[in-house]
Amino acid sequence: MYELKKKDRLCKNREYQLVYRHGKSYVARSVVLYIMKRSPQQPIRSGFVTGKKVGCAVERNYCRRLMKEVYRLHRSELISGYDLVLIGRSRMKYGTYADAEKTIMKLFKQAGLLKKA
């Protein structure tokens, strides 16, 4: 249930490029969210990226783990039929889980990805 299986991830470079090129972006200080609409019957797929400017490999992995954990715990609240890419910025490496959750959930709400209550 909480696993991020291969069918739920963006795996190939061209899939990421498609989302960057044809998707819409939402920006916060520590995270950038790109979304691209697909068929509503298809499950939501996600990708997590951090650039070299974030820091060393340990810091980049920490940022990706934070983003993945927020996504994993809130995946059931998201509408299906989208590809999304979360890009961690250098400010995220100084944050906690609570900061990451607040920022990412704000971006999900701004993008209209949250299901109606």
UniProtKB/TrEMBL annotation:
Gene3D superfamilies, per database record: 3.30.230.10
Known EC number: 3.1.26.5
Keywords per UniProt: Endonuclease, Hydrolase, Nuclease, RNA-binding, tRNA processing
Domain of life: Bacteria
Biological process annotations from GO: tRNA 5'-leader removal
Reactions performed catalytically: Endonucleolytic cleavage of RNA, removing 5'-extranucleotides from tRNA precursor
InterPro entries in the cross-refs: Ribosomal_Su5_D2-typ_SF (IPR020568), Ribsml_uS5_D2-typ_fold_subgr (IPR014721), RNase_P (IPR000100)
Cellular component GO terms, alphabetical: ribonuclease P complex
Molecular function terms, GO-annotated: 3'-tRNA processing endoribonuclease activity; ribonuclease P activity; tRNA binding
Pfam entry (one): Ribonuclease_P
NCBIfam families per the UniProt record, alphabetical: rnpA
Function per UniProt: RNaseP catalyzes the removal of the 5'-leader sequence from pre-tRNA to produce the mature 5'-terminus. It can also cleave other RNA substrates such as 4.5S RNA. The protein component plays an auxiliary but essential role in vivo by binding to the 5'-leader sequence and broadening the substrate specificity of the ribozyme.
Family indicated by similarity: Belongs to the RnpA family.
PANTHER family, per the entry: RIBONUCLEASE P PROTEIN COMPONENT
Subunit note: Consists of a catalytic RNA component (M1 or rnpB) and a protein subunit.
Name under which the protein is recorded: Ribonuclease P protein component
Gene: rnpA
